[in-house]
Amino acid sequence: MRHLIFGVMVFLAVAIGPVFAPVFANEQFESEAGPIRVETIAEGLSHPWGMAMLPDGSLLVTERRGRLWHLSGKTSSEVTGLPQVAAFGQGGLLDIVADENFAASRRIWFTYAEPGPGGASTALATAILSADAKRLENMNRIWTMSKKTSTGHHFGSRIVLAPQDKLFVTVGERGNARRAQDFSDSAGAVIRLNRDGSIPTDNPFADGKKGLPELWSKGHRNPQGATWDAVRGKLWTVEHGARGGDEINAPEPGRNYGWPVITYGTDYDGSKIGIGGKAQGYEQPLHYWDPSIAPSGLAVYSGDLFPEWKGDLLVGALKYQMLVRLDLDDDGRILGEERLLEGEYGRIRDVRAFGDGALWMLTDEANGKVLRVTPAIE
Questions:
Q1: Catalytic residue at 3?
Q2: Where is 139: in which H helix or E strand?
Q3: How far, in Å, CA of 82 to CA of 137, rounded?
Q4: Rounded CA separation 190/240 (Å)
Q5: Cα–Cα distance, 82 to 135 (Å, whole number)
Q6: Which residues, in sequence order, are CB contacts of 198 under 8 Å at separation 6+?
Q7: Number of Cβ atoms within 10 Å of the Cβ of 222
Q8: What SS3 state is found at 308?
Q9: Which one is catalytic: 47, 154, 220, 240?
Q10: How many domains does the chain have?
Q11: pLDDT given for residue 22 in this prediction
């Protein structure tokens, strides 16, 4: 059930760029945790992909076409200083995260499709956001896939800041399934780096003898959601299957998650992929969807606004245009799921649980929106 409520949060347009029209409509929906309110904070973004909240409550939001926006109070401004971005197919300017110590460092990391000989590849860069939040300074690309290809498919790519100054980057297999099983290739993988781009000495293939030193796990198809679970001390990922077979995993070092040898999906023409759902030497997903929901964006909820959601996973879905809550027990076992907002706002691309306790989402549309989910107070 939905109700119309009127709110006051607005972002106004800047003279050039997307128009953030005033938005007055907040809507209320039912959930197992009670009624929830969805506020449209900003709109007019062109296929937004990732967002980061800064300590002052403002947002950095990427657009796949290669633009970065700073949304603060009732104004928005474009951030300059980005590298050249290959904006085609599923590639472009993708994820973004801010340093936990941003107030002192003003450091961010972002992923993008990097152009070059042969096409494009997923790349990771870091930079300093200027004091006025209008430009990136000291920008440095610190990691890229070694092989560039012309396909516009399966770039990944989420960034997760992890303890001990580490970070993870998820990378798709770029539309070539065989690359996910090649340990000398960074495609179809979770990458683990020090935050300066160097290789951690405790990575599973740090010596480079049985795989690339940056590899954490392999056998992934196109993981577009990832998050760090501080309570359970683990990384969670969600990835697209083909026709069915979307997966939730908690990737462990050196493990092979099977694509395309094992999968619970079929090819788009209905034919079988690989040898089935299980095989020796390949990890099983912790949860999978068949039919596919096209998952993108993943968060572990740790705030206080929704105590019933604490420790649960929140997944955005492009197909069916919804938010999925996976109910987890204390050990991380998935007990069930709840589907929310189906068809209400469009394709949910990113899901974040920022420190304010609200759940934040981006819609991947030509008129993309920033949405904020809180309990409804009646």
A1: no
A2: strand 136-144
A3: 9
A4: 14
A5: 8
A6: none
A7: 27
A8: helix
A9: 154
A10: 1
A11: 53
Evaluate whether 216 touches 191 at the Cβ level (below 8 Å): yes
- Residue 110 contacts residue 94 (beta carbons within 8 Å): yes
Q: What is the mean pLDDT of each run of 10 residues along the chain (378 residues)?
A: 35 41 73 95 95 97 98 92 98 98 98 97 98 98 96 97 98 97 98 98 98 98 98 97 97 98 95 96 97 97 96 98 97 96 98 96 96 89
Residue 15, CB half-sphere, CA atoms under 13 Å: how many?
0
Q: What is the CATH number of the domain that holds 164?
A: 2.120.10.30
* Count of Cβ atoms closer than 10 Å to residue 302 Cβ: 15
The candidate with the shortest Cα–Cα distance to 157, out of 211, 114, 206, is: 114
H helical segments located in 88-195: 102-105
Helix H or strand E encompassing 218: strand 215-218
Identify the pLDDT of residue 25.
63
Q: What residues make up the domain containing 270?
A: 2-375
- 105 token code pair: 């460092």
DSSP class of residue 269? Answer: T
Q: Can you tell me the distance from the alpha carbon of 46 to that of 366, in angstroms, rounded to the nearest whole number?
A: 5
